[in-house]
Amino acid sequence: MKATTLNHLPPDGAPLPHEVSTAPFEPYATETMTPEQERVYLASQWQLMWWKFRKHRLAVISAFVIVAIYAMAAFAEFLAPYHYTTRNTDFIRAPSQSIHLFHEGSLIGPFVYPYTMRLNMENLKREYEVDATRPEKLRFFCKGDDYTFWGLISGNTHLVCPPEGGTFFLLGSDRLGRDMLSRILYGGRISLSIGLLGVSVSFVLGVIIGGIAGYYGGRVDLFVQRIIEIVQSLPHIPLWLALASILPPTWSPLLVYFGITVILGLMDWTGLARSVRSKLLSLREEDYVVAAQLMGAKPRRIIALHLVPGFMSHLIASATITIPKTILGETALSFLGLGLRPPITSWGVMLNEAQNINVVALYPWLLYPVVPVIMIILAFNFLGDGLRDAADPYR
Predict the structure, then answer these.
(1) Is the pLDDT of residue 129 over 80?
(2) 182-390: what fold?
């Protein structure tokens, strides 16, 4: 429209001068918007979240660490030098063997020095000495202990194998002569999968119960909130111990595994339910929800297809923070002897053998399973912080 000054106003009743542009309408085109601003303006919610998440360096590094740990657990059969049940009775509680490249100034490739063991009759302790005169080369992509990959595919190929006629205990061996590294890799599959399955149970319960409370409100919300307060008021560790002790000792290891998973999931749904409830209370009065109600959509469909996707990013962040709690819960129960039991191998079951302080003082490598527990818990917490910040990209 042409500018009209006060000195050139048209006579009373005369129309104001104007013109109509015939150019195509471009709703996002402005004269002052830079290409970078236009890129942000046209980006989706998930793109904005990804851009903000990438700026959180610690969360990105933690994501790579988590992926690496889960990948090692997934391919434990191939990566482990031994099967987790293989016993080397001549090397009980043997210390770690270091990998070397040079022997007497010559490069001969990755190798280890063998052990010589003698029994100290004064304290009945096995004492191992390194024989630095006989280097034994490690084998790669070799044939070793038989295994069934994920219970489906039989094989015996390993990434690294002990030398012919020798041993390879990178992290030492336990009281039965079993390789600690192999057992940590196999045990990670159980501990890490319990975290995912446990958070799946709590995620489903939290979304369903919190969704019902937030959508209906009123007496339903009041009843659900009282249940949540009762559950949260119970001390978790004694309740974990009580529920875990109920599991029959005659159950198979598989049933115990699923029982512990369900118990851990039942304890961690309250926080997620409250988050879902508070979000739905604020979203249920939106116009698109009212429109869905007027069109006859059922509450289940409105919650699942219209309300929950609106704050799915917050749910993902909350679930990421819940996973380490579940892993730590399984580790604590198994450490106390009330969780998983042999022959199942998990990080908590392995740490159960390190309860005796005398054993820890003499054989400190039995505490190595605590290292991946600390790493995965810290990584998930840092990842959860990054996702929580990225879930609100406009902040």
Answers:
(1) yes
(2) MetI-like fold (1.10.3720)
